[in-house]
Design brief:
mainly alpha; about 0% strand; flat
Length: about 120
């Protein structure tokens, strides 16, 4: 009997989650709920879009305590880092540079071992 009552209450609880809200003082967005002037709302919207872009782009300029970009305080070490990366990139492009991904040629069948 207790399991039946619990199951019925659980059914009512889950059904009540799909009932529309009956309150009338609900606003659509957080900006419309504030009592700021329209110019300040626009400025805060612009700042909310620009600030993340500024902070994510400045991660490459992290100094890590050396006051230099990428944490390197000697320009020769920085040059060796970039030249080494470009050398490895040139090796990879020399081997796989002409490998392109054809989106229309997806493989959905068995492998053909006949060589035709």
């Amino acid at each position: 009997m207790m399991k039946t009552i619990f199951a019925l209450l659980a059914l009512f609880a889950s059904a009540s989650a799909f009932v529309p809200s009956q309150t009338g003082s609900v606003v659509k967005t957080a900006l419309s709920a504030s009592t700021q002037p329209e110019a300040l709302k626009t400025l805060s919207t612009i700042a909310a879009g620009a600030v993340p872009a500024i902070f994510t782009s400045s991660a490459a300029l992290a100094t890590e305590g050396t006051n230099e970009w990428f944490g390197v305080d000697d320009i020769r070490v920085l040059a060796v880092l970039f030249i080494g990366h470009y050398f490895i990139l040139s090796l990879w492009l020399g081997q796989y540079g002409n490998a392109t991904e054809d989106d229309d040629a997806d493989f959905f069948g068995e492998i053909d071992y006949t060589g035709r």
